[in-house]
Amino acid sequence: MINTVRVAVDVGSRFHQVAIGDGSGRLLDEFQIDHGSTGFEQFFARIDRYATTDVRVAMEGYNGWARPLDQQVLARGWRLYNVNNLKLARYKEIFPAPAKSDAIDTRRMLELFAFDGQRPLGRDVLQEVTSSTATQRELKYLTRRRRQHVADRATRLTRLRVDLSAVCPDLLALTKAVENLWFLRLLTCRDRLTALPRLHAKTIASIRGIGAKTWPRIQAWQKTATFGSTIDLADTDIVADAAAILALNEQIKALDARIEAAACTCPMTGRLRTLPGFGVTGTAELSGEIGSLRRFETEASLALYLGMAPLVHSSGLQQRGKRPKCVNSRCQAALMTCIVRHMACVPESRVYYDRKRAQGKRHNQAVRALGRHLVRVIWRMLHDDRDYELRGE
Measured between alpha carbons, how far is 156 from 242 in angstroms, rounded to an integer? Predict the structure, then answer.
């Protein structure tokens, strides 16, 4: 009778290679499944044959192409592990196989279970996935989608600015910022850019955001409007980009409302918001990406994950640092923004930042130095279920 079952899954976009072994690492079964309901049913049926509740599953690529299989594994109450790709690659370099295939990779992943709990040799080779709350999963989805929309908007704004500068710089000169809503509405009130000089005065005045000072400037531009030689190529594309930016603004606004509603029911988000300068979006993103605090053994490991603790990378007289590979870039960006706003609210934090700048640190280095201290505060707040308190209050 098999008491424990170990499962290794090499995740692909269309197929997943699976290897099943016992607690000693002996191979029991291996097969391939499709990425679909039929394949998932086959996966669970093959494991259920061993009639044991001690099932541990290791996946290379948790929360990527593994979805929704990884969530179904967690729903069954099985222990799920994420394979550290970097350490798996190093393991295969030290103990090379005669060939390379998905089946061989899954067997090597089964071997990694033997290192589980061995320190320091097998540290974090297999990282157990801890379930976050439903609210945190919602926040993670919403904030990641919001970040994608913000990045898309930034790309389109840059392209819009470049195109307008090339075909109609005088129109671009009407505004200091191309993202001004009244300017975007002006661009999209007709389906072609070359139709704007023929707009009637009543039409211009009816555009929301155009006031008494802006309206005469637009009319003055209409009298002398000229376009570059490439306007026939970009005539409708400029309008389409402006319309897409307005649509993205609305989608981001709707996501902000959903994020705020979900954040109100998340204890971690509420606790982080007690930190001065930490807003709804930043704390929601931190809560969604951090998930359970049980993932981290110490506050130092949390600092590494948040990107607030660069590693020493020195040789001889060269003293420098390097960015850890385990950094969550979304967390780092959100926390950096929160820290900058925090400095404006807490004079002591600003003094610390200025001292680091005086020591020759660049802006981002000084912010991360302050962030390293704040991570200690965040760790203690979350660990002890305490809100932020200013000393002396």
Answer: 8
